[in-house]
Design brief:
With 484 residues, this protein is of the alpha+beta class. It has helices at 55-67, 167-183, 224-243, 289-297, 303-314, 318-324, 328-341, 344-362, 373-384, 391-403, 407-413, 422-435, 437-444, 450-461, 468-479, and strands spanning 5-16, 71-72, 75-76, 79-82, 92-95, 102-111, 114-127, 131-133, 145-147, 154-160, 196-206, 216-221, 251-256, 261-267, 277-278, 285-286. It has 3 domains: 2-292, no CATH class; 301-413, no CATH class; 422-479, Arc Repressor Mutant, subunit A (Orthogonal Bundle). α7 (328-341) packs parallel to α9, α9 packs antiparallel against α10 (391-403) and α12 (422-435) packs across α14.
Length: 484
């Protein structure tokens, strides 16, 4: 019965632009400073304070619009979006309305269900509001505290067409969009700090229908998991209402992660509720067509194109390529290792394995890694040359990261080169066989898995330096009774 309804989903993504100063004044956009430390008459909305548009914010907004396939308008205008809330000191937000910065884009990506195309209705610029603090104070039950550091931070709002048909698809698209914005350097992707936020517009309609149902807006979803869970719940909630003969209300709802439910916040505002009118203190934004094209030409390689290139150029599995293109810095690091080592797959394994584990352990990102790509490539070349193998490789990696010494130096100074001497390995194998008669008897009785235990004992005795292939060959020969 539920399958007779089709969900229709569109997203509105608020992206904080990575400028050093706010959109209409010179106050810092730095996160984590003391409350109300980065404010001035402009971002506090004091009488007589005039906004001056931040050129870098415009550049970043145009860059994002190009990356999303939009047409950037030569002329756009700012408007006052009027609503009253404690953290909006002017009583209105400077935004764009009927003449936005860019329109008509498309994002295409490969997901689990095949190719997905999501239209971009518009990209417009606006300022952020302040922040209301409802907890953390002795009198939080009676008062709301206001921090205006975020007031005036530059944003773009990216509005999609209602092209998504599942909660998982909406979360996947949001993740892909985040990767694009981070890759082109306009956003840091930090959803916990609020620099990337998502609202979801959700409705249902009879399967096969082309009309749209009553839309419900889900506000301020700050993780991919929250997007998926909130949309899943909302689809189920609306379906139950319709099946029971009730109507879906046009409203704004909030997602409560603790209960796994959406809760009503207010009736949904439409454009006329905000009483938009042109911003009298800002002239139209007029952009030079040549400058618009210059920004487009300076775009870096986008994540999906880079992923496809990594698969084709380096022969990587799709999974590896997807992980390595999650950020521009990670992709750059991998590519430098791959080119210097000549072994792309081993480079991918080390970056996604040992290096990622060390980053998680230290709580750092790829930009804070002290091990250079050239140093990691040196380790891979030693492995490929057969100089070291087995557990020694991980030990050398750890020493490299901790000391900054190159792999070759560590191997030479600590005598870690692989043992390929057949008599020496035969002696080590025989010693292990003599010390483990029970395991020898089990192997000869047909328990072939015992061989792995014996190999491990030989590698332990040789401190991981013995040639594993030669150890296996020697063990099989001696266990079979061939002493030659």
């Amino acid at each position: 019965m539920r399958s007779s309804f089709e969900p229709v989903i569109g997203l509105e993504i608020h992206c904080q632009l990575l400028t050093a100063s706010k959109i209409f004044c010179g106050c810092s956009t730095a996160y984590g400073v003391p409350p109300n430390a980065s404010v001035c008459p402009v971002c506090l909305g004091l009488p007589g304070a005039l906004p001056v548009l931040n050129r870098k914010a415009v550049e970043y907004a145009v860059r994002a619009a190009h990356a999303l396939g939009c047409t950037v308008q030569q002329t756009s205008t700012f408007a006052r979006k009027n609503y009253f809330y404690a953290d909006l000191p002017k009583g209105y937000q400077i935004s764009q309305y009927d003449r936005p910065l860019a329109t008509g884009g498309t994002v295409t990506f490969q997901g689990e269900g095949g190719t997905t195309r999501v239209g971009i209705t518009r990209v417009h610029m606006e300022e952020d509001a302040g922040k209301s603090l409802h907890e953390g104070f002795a009198d939080s039950d009676r008062r709301t505290y206001l921090d205006f550091n975020r007031s005036g931070v530059p944003l773009i709002e990216i509005v999609t067409d209602p092209d998504l048909r599942s909660a998982a698809g909406a979360a996947d698209f949001f993740a892909r969009l985040r990767a694009i914005l981070v890759a082109i350097g306009v956003n840091d992707g930090n959803m916990e700090e609020g620099s990337l936020r998502c609202d979801a517009n959700v409705s249902i309609r009879p399967a096969g229908s082309t009309s749209l149902g009553v839309k419900v807006e889900l506000k301020n979803l700050n993780s991919f998991r929250h997007v998926q869970r909130a949309v899943e719940f909302e689809i189920a909630r609306q379906t139950e209402l319709v099946l029971a003969g009730s109507q879906v209300e046009h409203e704004t709802r909030l997602w409560d992660p603790s209960t796994g439910r959406t809760v009503s916040m207010r009736g949904k505002e439409d454009a006329h509720d905000y009483r938009y009118f042109p911003e009298p203190d800002l002239p139209p934004l007029v952009l030079d067509p040549e400058w618009i094209d210059t920004v487009r030409k300076e775009l870096p390689e986008l994540p999906d194109a880079r992923r496809q290139r990594f698969v084709k150029q380096y022969g990587l599995p799709e999974y590896d390529a997807t992980v390595l293109t999650a950020s521009r810095e990670l992709g750059d690091y991998f590519e430098a290792v791959a080119l210097a080592s000549g072994n792309p797959k081993a480079s991918s394994n080390w970056v996604m394995g040992a290096l990622a584990a060390r980053m998680n352990e230290l709580g750092i990102g790829i930009g804070d890694v002290t091990l250079t790509p050239e140093a990691l490539a040196g380790l891979i070349r030693l492995i490929d040359a057969g100089t070291i193998s087995g557990p020694v490789t991980k030990a050398v990696f750890e020493k490299m990261y901790d000391t900054g010494r190159p792999a070759q130096q560590i191997v030479e100074e600590e005598g870690l080169s692989r043992i390929d001497d057949a008599p020496a390995i035969a002696a080590a194998v025989q010693a292990v066989l003599d010390a483990n008669p029970a395991a020898v008897a089990q192997y000869r009785a047909g328990k072939g898995q015992t061989l792995g235990f014996l190999v491990g004992q030989v590698m332990k005795a040789t401190k991981g330096k013995a040639n594993p292939a030669l150890v296996n060959e020697t063990l099989r020969r001696l266990l079979s009774g061939d002493a030659g």
